[in-house]
Design goal:
The structure is a homotetramer.
Chain A: E1 2-6, E2 9-13, E3 18-19, E4 29-30, E5 41-49, H1 60-69, E6 74-77, H2 95-108, E7 111-114, E8 116-119, E9 126-130, H3 143-152, E10 156-159, H4 176-183, E11 189-194, E12 197-198, H5 200-209, E13 212-216, E14 236-241, H6 246-254, E15 258-262, E16 265-267, H7 270-280, E17 281-283, E18 295-301, E19 307-311, E20 316-319, E21 323-329, E22 337-348, E23 351-358
Parallel strand pairs in A: 5-6, 6-7, 10-11, 11-13, 16-22
Antiparallel strand pairs in A: 1-2, 5-14, 8-9, 9-10, 11-12, 14-15, 15-16, 17-18, 18-21, 19-20, 19-22, 22-23
Chain lengths: ~350, ~350, ~350, ~350
Amino acid sequence: MIFLIIGNYLVAQNLNVVKEPEVFPDQPRREIRMPQLEGYVIIKGDFHLHTVFSDGSVWPTVRVQEAWRDGLDAIAISDHVEYRPKREFLSGSLNQVHQIALPEAEKYGIILVKSAEITRRMPPGHLNALFLNDIDELDTESWQEALEAARKQGAFIFWNHPGWQAQQPDTCIWFDEHEKLMKQDLIHGVEVYNFDEWYPVALNWCREKNLAFIANSDIHEPVPYMPGYSNYFRPMTLVIAREKTEQAMKEAMFNRQTVAFFAGKLAGPQLWLEKMFYASVGVGKPFNIKPDGSASITLSNLTDIPITLKNDQGKTFQLEALSAVVIPVANLSQPTELPFIITNFFTGTEENLRVNLQLNMP
Amino acid sequence: MIFLIIGNYLVAQNLNVVKEPEVFPDQPRREIRMPQLEGYVIIKGDFHLHTVFSDGSVWPTVRVQEAWRDGLDAIAISDHVEYRPKREFLSGSLNQVHQIALPEAEKYGIILVKSAEITRRMPPGHLNALFLNDIDELDTESWQEALEAARKQGAFIFWNHPGWQAQQPDTCIWFDEHEKLMKQDLIHGVEVYNFDEWYPVALNWCREKNLAFIANSDIHEPVPYMPGYSNYFRPMTLVIAREKTEQAMKEAMFNRQTVAFFAGKLAGPQLWLEKMFYASVGVGKPFNIKPDGSASITLSNLTDIPITLKNDQGKTFQLEALSAVVIPVANLSQPTELPFIITNFFTGTEENLRVNLQLNMP
Amino acid sequence: MIFLIIGNYLVAQNLNVVKEPEVFPDQPRREIRMPQLEGYVIIKGDFHLHTVFSDGSVWPTVRVQEAWRDGLDAIAISDHVEYRPKREFLSGSLNQVHQIALPEAEKYGIILVKSAEITRRMPPGHLNALFLNDIDELDTESWQEALEAARKQGAFIFWNHPGWQAQQPDTCIWFDEHEKLMKQDLIHGVEVYNFDEWYPVALNWCREKNLAFIANSDIHEPVPYMPGYSNYFRPMTLVIAREKTEQAMKEAMFNRQTVAFFAGKLAGPQLWLEKMFYASVGVGKPFNIKPDGSASITLSNLTDIPITLKNDQGKTFQLEALSAVVIPVANLSQPTELPFIITNFFTGTEENLRVNLQLNMP
Amino acid sequence: MIFLIIGNYLVAQNLNVVKEPEVFPDQPRREIRMPQLEGYVIIKGDFHLHTVFSDGSVWPTVRVQEAWRDGLDAIAISDHVEYRPKREFLSGSLNQVHQIALPEAEKYGIILVKSAEITRRMPPGHLNALFLNDIDELDTESWQEALEAARKQGAFIFWNHPGWQAQQPDTCIWFDEHEKLMKQDLIHGVEVYNFDEWYPVALNWCREKNLAFIANSDIHEPVPYMPGYSNYFRPMTLVIAREKTEQAMKEAMFNRQTVAFFAGKLAGPQLWLEKMFYASVGVGKPFNIKPDGSASITLSNLTDIPITLKNDQGKTFQLEALSAVVIPVANLSQPTELPFIITNFFTGTEENLRVNLQLNMP
């Protein structure tokens, strides 16, 4: 035995084995605070992930563990149907991937959506099909057949990284093929953000064509090696559903009740951004009231979504996650609304959410 | 003009003056998430602070700015009445301190309590008097007179750092003088934590003598130089009040509705720790249910108070701030309560809060 | 006594007083790694600081403690001669400031330079005078007299924040008055960086007029509240001196042997930037050599100065502090030099350091 | 095009694709600063790693990329010969693992040692064999044969996690079988640290039986998910070699020129710990000299190895990586040596390095 004094502790140490350096939490999860929307839950999902079964570098169970740690509720592992560079070592049906990961998902209570990536030349490029039964049926000659096979299984289908330079070197074009697919109900959403890039033009597509706003990591390596991982949450799709089940999530996605959350920004339909904004921001009572009617108010943000407000004089207030700012009010006796543009909440390519904060009179 | 390409941005830079490195938030505040208690607000206070007017090293306004940044709602600047080593440079009434800091407090909406530290030999040692009108009246010959003068002004009085080694070298004794003061209604609380140390025996004093549990920073330097500042929040006293006003806070303190929060621990009355626990922990539905009735549940913590749970097999689960853990349930058909000891919530010197988590049946 | 099991430790806890949470270093200092220059030491200085004696908010000793913690070797406390808003509380000679801080400086081995800020309308604006004997003599009617009084005491004088918007709203102009002062040997350097902004045009002034490149914090509040403090070191002036003494530092400053280090950038004379670059970057042996002569090399940086290299194809490599990158070599049989522009090392307003890395043949 | 003003930048944004959030370093590596030992290089190695080919969860190339990022120079991927739970998916020779990872190792200049883990019941438990040619030959009936096959290939063999609770529930015993193996030259080192635990008794084994001190991660998951990864470097074995090549490293290991580095501690032979200590600590000139001969000196540490010094009065000084502390000297006219025990440098189970710091007289 060794006896040590550490601080005011007398310590008797076991010389056979000593755990270092302290009790670690068993599988810690970082919860992501979302606003509470009356009647809804916000499901945090990443619907584009790869494993060693296609061109990723981790075993399927790792994707579940990472989702738990990162505070996600749902994932889709979407290995490439047509591109499997490790086939020499790992062959057989892609249905195996879901089977391997499922017990881990059940262990952590993560919704695991059976999925695959249809991987073709542009157009139409790469598309993810979610909520599948049998991935093998998507291994067809033509992409048209593959998408129809997916749809037949009830799949929710979205177009991945539409502006990816390897497939769209200079621009980010909506091809006639996509228009046709959309009319055939074979595209329901678009990734407006993928891995480390976003596609501003795609925001107007979602807005004008009524497609779901999607953001995903498309991660191939272990998640902590993503660029920006230590500064931001992993990109994710927020699904605004009636309850936290696979079925409710699927319905919400088909209803376009999704918001893309990436690199400190939100992009989605006006309706949902507005609800999320008002449920996120607390408005304090005016204080520091001066004879001329000017005063201050505190805005607080108890969610993990940062909010950048610009007032009508063009001044910007950065309301970080879990923080507060004091903002000036010119005159309390004026109409008691303060208009702001929320410059990190996007409803379209060049459109931001506009809000009017109600003053909470003293 | 210099034109640069940064990422995909074409940048035209003003050569006269360039702000580095980005737009910084204007006076950022770090909000501290507390549980929501029905009918109450939790006021976060630090009631023991020094400035250049006694033996501190910052101007009074700094204490207000620091409180804002650190997420506090209320402070007491409590310079020593009898010990003013910078008197050669800074003399005059200690009432000046409050006067200097008040406009800054009004600017940020911080409750600033006029206060002072009565600084005497042990017994009775050092005591803080809060909610004063005139500090000069406390500058008396005897400590008895000073305390009576404070009480006459309606002060809430607590004993500071009772186990401070300079005054109690080996032990932490409750002197007869304290007993007498308590009976005269001249002590209402005890600092169970001060700066970087706590006094376990003092927890039983508070519990048995019905005194308020108090934790403070007693900071003399700028706050970021406190030991442990980057790992923990500053020590603070949580006052559970009807509303966030000085008056409501004072009433709550006289009612002993306080909880000490320090170094990842809570210490306070059973009633309030229990309310805080149940309002902090979310219990998910059982999942991963096995034929033998065993299952898992997720506990989540959406507050900034870490929670360490020990179950009846002695296994410990660390539920960090803003995180979740999965815990096992032996048998869902058994009585649907899970007993835990909360080893970082103290109701007495050697007593921890005990709770029974209600299972949320599927 | 309480006995606890923490990990594999049996712990007997003193109930009177417990230090939290662990042994803290006594006044920790964060060393800043600088390159080793043959025959020189690099003195890290911040020569523009305020205290409660003018418009700052901390006691003079705090500036010394902060310098120690932040890894600095030398400071100048430079309170405003003409602007003392707390004069009602703190009056008397500014020479007192040096006297108060000196014992603390001796305790930590920090070089404390007696200094003051001459604070006038533009032109000539604000100027710092370092290495003074008697600050009171600078309290004159005209700025010309003040500067001459400083120079008579042997002062090193530099122009502060030349592009500060309050004094130069739209531009950053070198006035005739500055030209005249320079010719009278009454200006020896210019702050190219102050607090949170830099003045690109001032880099050419230093380069063309042979003035010292200076960067300072100009901090009024406690240093940790500077914008960007958690991302960058405090802005500082690197003085390249024969030894770490006040005398050697003064000589080096008059010889213009200074480099400004701010927000991840260096600005200074070509000669010194070049020496610093080559002493910072380690070049590994070529490896991964292919039949066509292409290969890889590792560049490593064991200093705290980040380095951004752009090669002749325009590709950028970010060589962070204390890190390494692999860079490609097109053909090992070609002339064995690799040219780079160091885009964060500035020798002038629009000029960056250019280097040729010697290959270390296998 | 969108035009934005960000700070003082006028920004023209490409709406097709925008990279977020900034230029990221291409494969950043975190260099670990080691002391410079005259005539030697310190090779940082982790010689116990798993992949999907046994019970790990990542592809072999990931282990190389992680080594690069974590500042290592050498690794051994040591999948279990006898335990391959994913054999249903991944079968065939373990020699494939080395073949898959080698091109990645060449790309980054990482020394990749062909290795395997011989995985048997206790005694002798699990042993790693490094520097193999053909792993298949180790797949034998008896462990004696397996170890002899390894040795025939010139392997360096060490015993893994000797106090692992699954194999040594209460104690950490050196069995007769180990004694015999050692005499047959079939064990050359012992893991004194594995994953998150260390075995103090094993330090005396290494010291008394002349075995190499080894520390490894034994990681199965992606490395960032190791406990303590954000607080400490990954555990590693420092090999003190003549040059950074596989051959020189192998010779050094057979010469027992290794030091285990784990959880802020070093364990190794007195000789090498001493050399590392003196090459790590800089001793400044005495300053703050008082009439009674007392003074202060600064100790600085420019390496990434923290150092805890205890002086002969029992006072402890924590000299963190890349930092400095001021320590008192009682009397400069006394013998100018300061004795210290280095409480985090272990030469045996209960023995720490003792040093005498030479004063650097003024």
